[in-house]
Design brief:
The protein contains 8 helices and 12 strands. It is of the alpha/beta class. It has 2 domains: 117 residues, Response regulator (Rossmann fold), CATH 3.40.50.2300; 94 residues, Arc Repressor Mutant, subunit A (Orthogonal Bundle), CATH 1.10.10. The longest helix is centred in the C-terminal third of the chain and has 17 residues. The two termini are 32 Å apart.
């Protein structure tokens, strides 16, 4: 079952499209947090996005460019601003197609199905983990926060991945060391401390402050 994210602030249109697509067997959600569409994207990990241009806070071009930093998922713009300039802008910002409002739901569905057929010869899913606006991307071993991207080392990535997957729970130093051991590199206790310190520094340089908390004598937690 394909997952589709609808980014449309006219809820009458959004829910009509959602209902129609669910009738075809797709899993569909409508974005609700227009201040941070990227968080909804990362949490749902859709395989196609329908994106309006005129949105509260930031327009669809902004969110298209943000998504393109972490994913090549197909994006179809849906907008009444269907002049040539907006169509060209949509494509230049990373959009894959453009459907003008008002549209026929069956025509939109045909375009969505064609786009999904063309797009998913590749191993298709975004591999993302999101918490408090911080997005960990396994496909390119990076962290994205408020438009800033930073590359991680293999060990930094594994540490952050475990902590984010176990958010709200303390992860022991032993568990983190076992995770790193399984990556074919032996690490002693001091090396773990150094890796966590370097990871924290990279996060802080990206604007992510106080994300990892030390529980003295036990381990680390992301709350």
């Amino acid at each position: 079952m394909y997952r589709i994210l609808i980014v449309e602030d006219d809820m009458t249109i959004a829910y009509a499209v959602k209902k129609h697509m669910e009738g075809w067997g797709y899993e569909v959600i409508c974005a609700e947090n227009f201040k941070n569409v990227l968080a909804d994207f990362a949490a749902f990990s859709p395989q196609l996005v329908l994106m309006d241009i005129s949105l509260p806070f930031f327009n669809g071009y902004h969110w298209c460019s943000q998504i393109r930093q972490i994913s090549q998922v197909p994006i179809i713009f849906i907008s009444s601003a269907a002049d040539n300039m907006n169509i060209v802008m949509a494509v230049n910002m990373g959009g894959d197609d453009f459907v003008a409002k008002p549209f026929d739901l069956n025509v939109l569905m045909a375009k969505v199905q064609a786009m999904l057929r063309r797009s998913y010869d590749f191993a298709g899913q975004t591999n993302l983990c999101e918490h408090r606006g911080v997005i960990l991307n396994a496909s390119d071993v990076t962290v994205v926060y408020e438009g800033m991207k930073v590359e991680l080392t293999k060990n930094e990535f594994k540490i952050l991945q475990v902590l984010m997957e176990q958010k709200g729970h303390v992860v022991s130093r032993d568990k983190l060391m076992i995770k790193l051991w399984e990556s074919d590199s032996y690490v002693d206790d001091n090396t773990l401390t150094v890796n966590v310190a370097r990871l924290r520094k990279k996060l802080e340089e990206t604007g992510i402050v106080d994300f990892i908390t030390t529980k003295k004598g036990i381990g680390y937690i992301i709350e």
